Amino acid sequence: MEGPSEENLIMEVREEEMISPAGGVKSIRIAYFLRPSVTSIDGHVFDPPVDSVNPTMVDNPVPLKAKFVGWRYPKKDWKKWVYRMQSLHHSTWKQAGIHDAIINSTFKIHRSDDLILGVAEKWCSKTNTFVFPWGEATITLEDMMFLGGFSVLGDSVLAPPGDGEETIRKLHEARSHIIVGKVQRASQCAWMRKFMDSESEIEHEAFLAYWLSRYVFPCGHDLVLGTVFPISVHLVRETKIALAPAVLASIYKNLSLLQEAIVASRKLGTREGQKEVLKVQVTAPFQLVQAWVWERFPTLSPKSNSVRCGEPRLAIWHGLKKMEMENVLAAIDHAEESFIWRPYMRALNNSLLDMVYKEKDYWIFVESFLGDKFEGLVRCLRTSELVSLDADCIEQYLPHRVAMQFGMDQDLPGCVARVNGSSDVAWSNYTRTIVDSILYIPARLFESDVTTRYMKWWKKLKFARSGTTKAGKDGKSASRSSKREKLEGLLKSNLEDDNLAPPGFPPKSNTVKAGVSGIKDKDMVGKKFQVESIQIILPRKDPQRKSTLSSYDFHGHGICERSERKLMESLSGTKSDTDALVPPPSGFSPKRARVEAENFGVEDKETGVEVLEGESSENRSEGHAKSCSLTNPEAAGMRLEERICTIEKLCAWLKAGNHCLDDIITLQDC
């Protein structure tokens, strides 16, 4: 019997040369990719169109007025209705997979137009991804689950009502009774007045119809939609409906419309003597888009709320004020090192994390019945077509382009043919059978990489950055690329300087003639490299293993700063008088201090940062003592100052993410 077709497989495993997306040291290891991936730049790779994310700029763009009609704030009476119905139908909501989504409608997410427009400008409708200068990212089905509270499993939103026709007839009859005005439309306010606390036999269905019309599929008018009645009937009967793909399709479509309007406003320009305003109406629930940005861009997000056990994830952004940013685009374009690929993996009270993602990676065999949790994960990981409530809205879902958001490694993304001939055909594609016999589940805190060919491919695309500086929260700016280049240049010049050797001694023969970022040869792993007075040893590690730093907090602070501080204290002598590094008397070797790994905040006991302890002068060999001697105390003081300066530069370089923290660093002879 023939095996499953490769084009239908979800993932693949192979050995590749990998590198951090922020750059750094290359390594060859076993990597895990989402399909389809391409192993050659000359292969069938779909390049995001550069023009779509680098629009032609004009001096006087047409003003853009975006109206976010799908962004609904909760009304006071709505909250009361929700809490009353929750007390009556809590178990039904849980079974139908809508409990958290309904509770989310009671939260108020303050809108930041500048933030929404800034990130929407990076949207590419060809790939349904945000195209940043440093890589691709997008809103996924996983985001719809965690942030929206919607289910990825269940029947289609276009599924027929079955035997619920009588209930739907009653809903339509009630709707016809509240239709007023010349437009003959049923307002949401009138619907709430009719059914709230009415104890009607169809109050629950009417409640869900209101929720679906206002918060899930808003149409731009405060109307109750008859098209949601079949969905409300299914949900009351505890039939799960896949709302996640339908909402995500609507978000994709509206992001494309908004991005097109932004590009048009910048290309057209204002005609002389005319006051033109370009208007665009956004009907999707874009509060989820802003929450997505806040989850992943720490420099653009306010300090999050603490979440009580059992509360939906969206609660951490409830009621928070927007941040004032001078240049949102510049902050987005330079967020490559602060971008959080997997923000939800840090939550400790989420059932999906408890049941699917573990502290260590593992494999699971696919059986005839995989279970809802893993079935939902598969829907998030594989390419598919997304069907919205509007049958004409079918959007392509391409998670293989943003594999790092799922803890998988990223390679060149292959092309995926459309399967959108009709809503039925597209839905069949979304619900197709899993053909993989085994699935890989990455560790909860695993940080994935990209292949070196992906890095080369991306750099060739040459996406422009908005501005040349990085704007920080304090309003200051700093050029990341120029500072890194200067620092690497300084390190390189210091490494190549023969005058680094003590007076009267030749330079050390094992000095590296390139910056630290140039250590790329896999054969050099485990060997030593001299960087002035610092010796870096690239440890021999399990190629499939990455250390997880549990002391790393939400906004990316913690271990790097603590490690740098401890290292500098040991070198400068500010921590302990007995361990201070001071120029030794003539003829004696300098004292060296030992700092244990835990002092650097590294919780993984298999890794650490160590400054070796020197032996007593009696136990040192004569040759070693001579190589460490200095001509006089004044020269020793100058050398110590130079070394501390270089240490500071190296620490800053390490802090910027250019080298692994689990490398072993030892202090060489002074």
Written overview of the protein:
Residues 492-515, 568-587 are annotated as: Disordered. Residues 97-459 form the Aminotransferase-like plant mobile domain. With 670 residues, the chain is an alpha+beta fold. 34% of the residues lie in helices and 11% in strands. The strands form eight sheets. It has a three-stranded antiparallel sheet with strand order 2-1-14. A three-stranded antiparallel sheet has the order 5-6-7. It is globular and about 85 Å long. 36% of the residues are buried.
Keywords:
globular; 19 strands; disordered C terminus; Aminotransferase-like plant mobile domain-containing protein; 3-stranded antiparallel beta sheet; MAIN-like; alpha+beta; 20 helices; 34% helix
- Low-confidence segments, given as residue ranges, are 468-631, 659-670
| Helix/strand/pairing category | alpha+beta
The radius of gyration computed from the alpha-carbon positions, rounded to a whole number of angstroms, is 29 Å
Q: Quick one: how many beta strands?
A: 19
Helix fraction bin: 25-40%
- Quick one: overall form? globular
Distance between the termini: 69 Å
Strand content: 5-15%
Largest sheet: number of strands, sense, barrel closure: 3 strands, antiparallel
Average pLDDT number: 75
How many helical stretches?
Answer: 20
* Strand order in the sheet with the most strands: 2-1-14
InterPro entries: AminoTfrase-like_pln_mobile, MAIN-like
Protein name: Aminotransferase-like plant mobile domain-containing protein
GO biological process, one term: meristem maintenance
Organism: Olea europaea subsp. europaea
